[in-house]
Amino acid sequence: MKNIFYKFFQGRYGAYGADKLTKFILFIAAILLLLSYITPVGILYYVSFILLIYCYFRLFSKNIPMRYKENETFVKHADKFLNLFGDLKYNISQRKIYHIYKCPECKQKIRIPRGKGKIEVRCPKCGKTFIKHS
Questions:
Q1: pLDDT tens, residue order, the chain (134 aa)
Q2: Helix or strand or coil: residue 111?
Q3: Using CA atoms, how far apart are residues 61 and 10, in angstroms rounded to an integer?
Q4: Taking the model in full, what pTM does it have?
Q5: C-alpha to C-alpha distance for 71 and 77, rounded to whole angstroms
Q6: DSSP of 21-74
Q7: Of 25, 47, 44, whose CA–CA distance to 35 is shortest?
């Protein structure tokens, strides 16, 4: 039986396992299916069914380069989206320790440690100096 599945998937995109795009589509389909049972919106069931069919299409497809390209595009955009949250988390953690000011001349962001009183700040980009309270 294992040999039959091996022969069937040979030369198909699903032989390499489910990629990130397929897993994401399956996750969305499962959520929509659950919502279709909870809410009276009937179209959610059909949308989830179409997404499941698309997942099977991706797994059984013999056009491996195209499926790989679709996955790479998805990963690129998903990483951009997830990096926004990582940057936000980093900025929030930095604001606990530092004041962040902009240079009045070139608008470069400058980090100043908190609790140092009035200090003279020199912009590393343009060299302008200005006084700020930290």
A1: 778 877 777 777 777 778 899 999 999 999 999 999 998 888 999 999 999 999 989 988 888 899 999 999 999 999 988 887 777 888 888 888 888 888 888 888 888 888 888 888 888 888 888 888 87
A2: strand
A3: 11
A4: 0.61
A5: 10
A6: HHHHHHHHHHHHHHHHHHSS-THHHHHHHHHHHHHHHHHH-S-HHHHHHHHHHH
A7: 44
